[in-house]
Amino acid sequence: MQPIVIGTATASPGETARGVIPAGRDFDGQIEIPVIVVRGARDGAVLWIDGATHGDEAEGSITCWNLAKEVDANGLAGTLVLVPILNLAAAKNGSRGNPLDHVNYDLNRVYPGKPNGRGTERLAWAYYQEFAPKADIIISLHSGGSVAYMSRVIYHNDIPASLELAKAFGVGWDLIVEPAYSVDRRPATGTIEAVSGANGKPALVVELGGLSESLPDKLLQNCRYLTDGCVNLMRYLEMLPGKVERRGDIRGNKSTLRRRDHRNADNTLRRSAGRPLCLLR
Predict the structure, then answer these.
(1) Per-domain residue ranges for the chain?
(2) Contact, 122 vs 92, CB < 8 A?
(3) CA angle, corner 203, sides to 193 and 246, nearest 5?
(4) What number of helices (H) and strands (E) belong to the chain?
(5) What pLDDT, in 10s, does the model give residues 28-73?
(6) pLDDT of res. 257
(7) Residues linked to residue 38 through DSSP beta bridges, in sequence order
(8) pLDDT tens readout for residues 233-271
(9) Which of 62, 138, 199, 262 lies at a C-alpha separation of 20 to 30 Å from 228?
(10) Half-sphere exposure of 149 toward its Cβ, with a 13 Å CA cutoff?
(11) Which residue from 249, 260, 152 is spatially nearest to 208, judged by alpha carbons?
(12) Alpha-carbon distance 67 to 230, whole Å?
């Protein structure tokens, strides 16, 4: 097994390394994306997990730090890449996007970015250059941030394996939907799951928390749920030992599907305009 290099971090088998992904310069210095690389002692998948795509969503950051503490490189097969704070400028401001970029405010709408674009586009481009060729599976952790509460939602891309990976997040993750954000954005473009799908890579956007559950106790509890889901997924991928708790049958329940006449013949749920919203498994 060879060492793996992510940005400035180089991790040999059985080691954990820390570094940054350089992403250009700002007016006051270098722009860098912190990264933690846990290189397992045995061959396996490269699982890439990020947090703080949006700077007001701390759940993903804390989950990444939990995983960095709890996953032992010597007991791991494959490689775990953790990016706790992807959008550092937004996180410093506690805002969804970079407050200095009013044109491309949302990082998860501009992938793969541009090498000579605006600040958020350049950040997306530098990040894309690292994860696109090196990651086998991408998990992007989100919440409702400062504007909403999200209750255990997983968006998957169009790669068939991504649905199975979503189910492997474990019991309690009951709402698993296709990557549709609005009636006029189908299929989704510019998102990390969309560009990963275009490259043939499965990707998930996992949502939990925000707004009413941002106080410390609930925040940490939700981060525990996210951490446990990631660990369960790693067991499913045989990256870690242990029993897999797997949700084998995902379907809408009464609270998810209130009007059965809104189903199409192919078991999709229609919006009022008649466009499928999600596929109920």
Answers:
(1) 4-250, 251-281
(2) no
(3) 140
(4) 6, 12
(5) 778 999 999 999 999 999 999 999 999 999 999 999 999 999 999 9
(6) 25
(7) 16, 80
(8) 999 999 999 999 976 544 333 233 222 233 344 443 333
(9) 199
(10) 9
(11) 152
(12) 8
pLDDT band at 5, cuts 50/70/90? very high
Q: What is the CA radius of gyration of the chain?
A: 18
- Is the pLDDT assigned to residue 112 strictly greater than 70? yes
pLDDT score for 26: 76
* pLDDT at residue 278 in the model: 41
Show Cβ contacts of residue 83 under 8 Å, excluding neighbours closer than 6 positions. Answer: 21, 33, 34, 35, 36, 48, 49, 50, 51, 64, 127
Contacts 24+ apart (CB under 8 A), 252-256: 252/280, 253/174, 256/174, 256/175, 256/280
Give CA–CA dist 99/101, Å, rounded. 6
CATH code for the structural domain at 4-250: 3.40.630.10
Q: Are 219 and 138 in contact (CB under 8 A)?
A: no
| Contact between 34 and 85 (Cβ < 8 Å) | yes
Q: And the tokens for 78?
A: 């494959």
